[in-house]
Amino acid sequence: MQRAVFLDRDGVINQSPPRGHYVLNRSEFNFKEGIGELLKYLQDQGFLLFVVTNQACVGRGLLTGHDLRNIHTWMSLSLSAKYKVFLDEIFYCPHQPTDGCICRKPEVGMIMDAVKKHGVSLEHSWMIGDSLNDIVAGKRAGTKTILIEESDGKNTRKENKEERPDFRVNSLLEITKIIQ
Ligand SMILES: [Mg+2]
Ligand SMILES: [Zn+2]
């Protein structure tokens, strides 16, 4: 069994677009400071690396699945070329909240796909995200969870018990002190 880190995309790997907006092409995709170094650290610790991202922009017809996968291919190639980081797989949910699918976080469908395909031990794995839906998905699946809290007050709403992360950080760098 392998241990893994599940990463939300927007707000973790790249700077989050404003609420209600989406990254629709490469020019809108800006890597976050320190993400390459963090992923390299996690890879060197022996973790599999999975991206699990809600992209309702596909279901809304703003971006095709093909174009989204092209952005992801470019993202992966950028990380491997610059940091020697190799993402094991990128999972995305193309559905809208009203579709009632089993993959859109806080549902656990994407995480469970990774478990089935790659033999992941969830209790030795982590979910990192910047929204409470990421935290709930991680907790429901049985991983440990880290919430990235930005200074823009995105997560200032008081969370209930199911939404409470194991750890909170203000920067990606802090994660290397938590996951060892
Ligand atoms: Mg996010
Ligand atoms: Zn879905």
TrEMBL record:
Sites annotated Contributes to substrate recognition: R104
Annotated localization: Cytoplasm
Source taxon at top rank: Bacteria
Cofactor(s) needed: Zn(2+); Mg(2+)
Sequence intervals crossing the membrane: none
Record keyword Zinc present: yes
EC number(s) per entry: 3.1.3.-
Gene Ontology MF annotations: metal ion binding; phosphatase activity
Keywords linked to the UniProt accession: Carbohydrate metabolism, Cytoplasm, Hydrolase, Magnesium, Metal-binding, Zinc
Lipid metabolism recorded as keyword: no
Pfam families listed in its UniProt record: Hydrolase_like (PF13242)
Descriptive protein name: D,D-heptose 1,7-bisphosphate phosphatase
Record lineage: Bacteria, Candidatus Harrisoniibacteriota
